[in-house]
Amino acid sequence: MSSKPQSVGETPAESPQAQSLSNVGLFSGFVAVFKRDLTLAYRNQGELFNPLTFFLIVITMVPLGITPDPEVLAELAPGMIWVVALLATLLSLDGLFRSDFEDGSLEQLLISPSPLYLLVLGKVAVHWLVTGLPLTLLAPLLGVMLFLPDSGYGPLVLSLFLGTASLSLIGSIGAALTVGLRKGGLLLSLIIMPLYSPILIFGASSVASAIDGFGYTSQIAVLGAFLSIALICAPFAAAGALRVSVNG
């Protein structure tokens, strides 16, 4: 039997297989950047462990510098862990795009046929995987050191899981804006810290509320909303900032 003739101007519908192949091509850049940055991160293990070492040292020094009283440490623990986690994340942000800028590969990313949004998202995903996720997993151990009550561990891990991902996404904007500056670390902090403040407030508040016996789901919901907005908007903003920094 002969197939139905195609009318003039009518485009043939794509088969599911063709649509699948186009999606694979669309995300190939994301996968390539993700694998490359993850490999480089594990090759440079010194830089990989710097945020974790900073996190551990500062929390260890808190009982020595303030007081070893368990009640006082338990009260300070939620805010202290969150502040140090934020600073540890900030410590590693300056190198998010800098190595690519210095070796010229950042310019290749800008002219790549893959969407720059996905390429930036791949780099941010690796940054969170090697910085934010280890900080989240290490936090309960440091909570023990600060005599954090048992009711605070669940919201601590959950809030850090959501919050550190938002920190990496928002931080990518500042890292993109300062990538062309030789000493952009201080400027990066000044740009990013006001945007980090709401995440810090709701993250620490969720742990404190759980310790005091109140509900903390509203704070977790706000952190989830921050993450959703950052996931949509931050890579676009970082991509635009990279074009300005490299080409401007």
TrEMBL record:
Encoded by which gene? Answer: ccmB
Q: Which domain of life is it from?
A: Bacteria
Name the job this protein performs: Required for the export of heme to the periplasm for the biogenesis of c-type cytochromes.
Q: Please state what the protein is called.
A: Heme exporter protein B
Q: Report the Pfam families cross-referenced here.
A: CcmB
Q: Species name for this entry?
A: Sessilibacter corallicola
Q: Which NCBIfam families does the protein's record reference? A: ccmB
Would you identify the family this protein belongs to, as annotated?
Belongs to the CcmB/CycW/HelB family.
Enumerate the UniProt keywords alphabetically. Answer: Cell inner membrane, Cell membrane, Cytochrome c-type biogenesis, Membrane, Transmembrane, Transmembrane helix, Transport
Chief subcellular location equals membrane
Q: Where in the cell is it found?
A: Cell inner membrane
Q: Which PANTHER family match?
A: CYTOCHROME C BIOGENESIS B-RELATED (PTHR30070:SF1), HEME EXPORTER PROTEIN B (PTHR30070)
